[in-house]
């Protein structure tokens, strides 16, 4: 078993992905055991199954890369559809961020909202708040520091 796992890891390089492929190989080998005729060693036969799984892995990875590079919105859809736990974690994180933001002064809340929610540049924020670029830079730095302090204090 560890020899097969090492073989898969050598081809993949990522421990988590290799573990997943290794599990797929074991399931496939179990399902296809009746087809093993003894014409090669059992390890060689299972490595053949592993090779097919590895090729499938890289093929799917390439397809995802090409597809997501041309249609980036699909990655978000796929993530939401395939990972409901991740969606729940994002929602919990969003609530935590809102809670931390609420703990900041109104001025810090506003500048962080303008920068990260409305995605305004520092120049645009300065114009909107009728103040200098440098003043906004300083306030944004202090707001980030305050957010960071409060974030770390919650743990």
Briefly summarize what is shown.
The chain has 155 residues and is mostly helical. It is 83% helix and 0% strand.
Q: Average pLDDT, to the nearest integer?
A: 82
CATH third-tier fold name of the largest domain: Rna Polymerase Sigma Factor, Chain: A
Structural class: mainly alpha
How much strand? under 5%
What does this molecule look like?
The structure is a single chain. It is built from eight helices and no strands. It has 155 residues and is mainly α. It has two domains: 2-79, Rna Polymerase Sigma Factor, Chain: A; 84-154, Arc Repressor Mutant, subunit A (Orthogonal Bundle), CATH 1.10.10.10. It starts with a helix and ends with a helix.
What keyword list fits this structure?
83% helix; mainly alpha; 8 helices; elongated; 2 domains; single chain; Arc Repressor Mutant, subunit A; 155 residues; Rna Polymerase Sigma Factor, Chain: A
């Amino acid at each position: 078993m560890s020899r097969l796992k090492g073989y898969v890891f050598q081809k993949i390089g990522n421990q988590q992905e290799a573990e997943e492929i290794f599990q797929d190989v074991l399931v496939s080998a179990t399902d296809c055991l009746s087809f093993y005729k003894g014409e090669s060693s059992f390890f060689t036969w299972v490595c053949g199954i592993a090779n097919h799984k590895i090729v499938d892995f890289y093929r799917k990875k390439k397809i995802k890369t090409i597809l997501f590079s041309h249609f980036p919105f699909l990655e978000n859809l796929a993530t939401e559809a395939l990972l409901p736990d991740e969606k729940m974690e994002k929602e919990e994180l969003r609530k935590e961020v809102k809670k931390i933001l609420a703990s900041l002064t109104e001025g810090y809340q506003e500048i962080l909202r303008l920068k990260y929610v409305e995605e305004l540049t520092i120049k645009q924020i300065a114009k909107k708040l009728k103040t200098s670029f440098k003043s906004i830079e300083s306030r944004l730095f202090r707001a980030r520091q305050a957010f960071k302090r409060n974030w770390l204090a919650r743990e």
